[in-house]
Amino acid sequence: MRELRTVVIFVGPAGAGKSTLLAAYARWLREFEGVKVFKVNLDPAADFIPYEPDFDVRSVVSTRNVAVKYKLGPNGALVKSIELITGELRSIVSEFCSVDADFILVDTPGQMEVFVFRDIAPKLIKLLKEYDNWLAATFVIDASLVKNPEDYAFVAIMSTALQARLGIDVVPVMNKTDLAGRTDLVGDVVSDAEQVIKELYGRGVYGEMMAEVLKVIWSYAKAAKVPKVSAVTLEGIDELHRIIHEVTCSCGDLT
């Protein structure tokens, strides 16, 4: 019986640097861990990808072609493309899950909502589980956008919501730390929660509401570190890898 592969799905809003981080992590895995990496692009609308995908969904469904065929605008064409990919997802997953690789890294559409809130995300997870893979997702956020406690609270809430939606462990990742300003909130989620909640109180009704929501979130959230990374300088990639390893093999204590 073959050893289990690790599959990491990169999710996040447009501009967070998902594709660039995937490329950096793939390079780090090859150079520092000496493992085989297979890179999957599941974004049918991508004009440019900063890596050479080993499987490219655009060979099956291209949003550009869909827009012409169905006479749709950019958003409609992307939604239609995702629907078409979902219909072909079993054959797509079987193709890249049959490869000889230690890690499979999966890039998702830049418009996070068309992946997460449609059938493609849970169906993808279900199919990947059929291959007995170790699964995890990274929720990639631009660290320069976390400027106040409300921003951090929103990241925490989204990360936990993703974990509930996907049914697998989600590692929140702060990318672009080389461009970020405030990073003191980016560390241990559990200890940061107390700091953030304290700061939220006294910041008006919205701040108090977010503080109360955070209290509920952390009663259900799984304790996890939040690595600070830079896909450009490779800062923090080793910490990201350590957390992914601990989450997927369930052999570590992330508290």
Task: Write up this protein.
The protein has 255 residues and is an alpha/beta fold. Helices cover 48% and strands 13% of the residues. It has ten helices and six strands. The protein has helices at residues 18-33, 63-70, 74-87, 89-97, 112-116, 120-129, 149-166, 189-200, 204-220, 237-249; strands at 6-11, 37-41, 55-56, 103-107, 134-142, 170-175. Strands 3-2-4-1-5-6 form a six-stranded parallel beta sheet, with helices on both faces.
Tags for this entry?
6-stranded parallel sheet; globular; 10 helices; 255 residues; alpha/beta
Bulk shape: globular
Largest sheet: 6 strands, parallel
| Helix count, DSSP H or I runs of 4 or more residues | 10
Number of DSSP strands? 6
Return residue spans where pLDDT drops below 50 for at least 5 consecutive residues. 186-191
Q: For the residues shown, what is the average pLDDT?
A: 87
Report Rg: 18 Å
Helix content: 40-55%
For the biggest β-sheet, the strand order reads: 3-2-4-1-5-6
Return the structural class.
alpha/beta
For the terminal residues, how far apart are their CA atoms?
Answer: 32 Å
| SSE topology string | EHEEHHHEHHEHEHHH
Sheet-strand content, in percent, reads 5-15%
